[in-house]
Design a protein that fits this description.
177 residues, alpha+beta, two-stranded antiparallel ribbon, 7 helices
Length: 177
């Protein structure tokens, strides 16, 4: 799983055509593509206002996510993003705890990435196949991002997922709304 989702490369996912097409790290990203990604997180950025001391910032929210996985899944202290993506994929598929093949793990991570990037307009849920796997249509190719930008994108999209799915405790959800 760790070899598949290596954040040293940019991955473009397309469920029905191919699992993964890698772009070289040397590719440069455009300012427009990264600003498109950032616009979905304006509410999260705006909550870091000093005049609102009771509202949590992104690093505090990320800490709560790490704590969530430690408490509920007995993960290590600084849970790798790959593990979080895998578990989100399991949640989205609804398959629960079981043995997964390497291909299953790749598919679960793919499901998570598509689901997490859906609010950005890169993917749209299409349908469930006969085996119950969700399929997503690629609406727009992902921008080429540097490794640190990929990390930021995934963390922000996971934070947004926790907000959308109401996975934070009530107090936290109240503070960020």
């Amino acid at each position: 799983m760790h070899e598949f989702l290596n954040f040293q490369k940019t991955f473009v996912y397309s469920w029905q055509k191919k699992i993964c097409a890698c772009h070289s790290e040397r590719s440069l990203r455009s300012e427009e593509s990264f600003s498109k990604i950032n616009r979905f997180f304006i509410p999260l950025r705006s909550i870091q206002n000093d005049t609102l001391p009771n509202i949590m910032n992104e690093s505090q929210l990320w800490k709560k996510i790490e704590d969530f996985f430690q408490e509920n899944f007995d993960t290590e202290k600084n849970v790798p993003i790959e593990t979080i993506l895998f578990l989100i994929g399991v949640q989205e598929l609804g398959s629960g705890k079981q043995k997964y093949t390497k291909d299953d793990k790749v598919n679960l991570i793919h499901i998570a990435v598509c689901r997490l990037l859906e609010p950005f307009g890169y993917y749209q849920f299409s349908h469930y196949d006969d085996d119950g796997y969700p399929h997503f249509e690629e609406l727009e190719q992902l921008p080429e991002l540097k490794p640190n930008e990929q990390q930021i994108l995934m963390k922000k999209s996971i934070i947004q997922y926790f907000i959308d799915e109401k996975l934070f405790d009530d107090e936290t959800l109240h503070q960020i709304q």
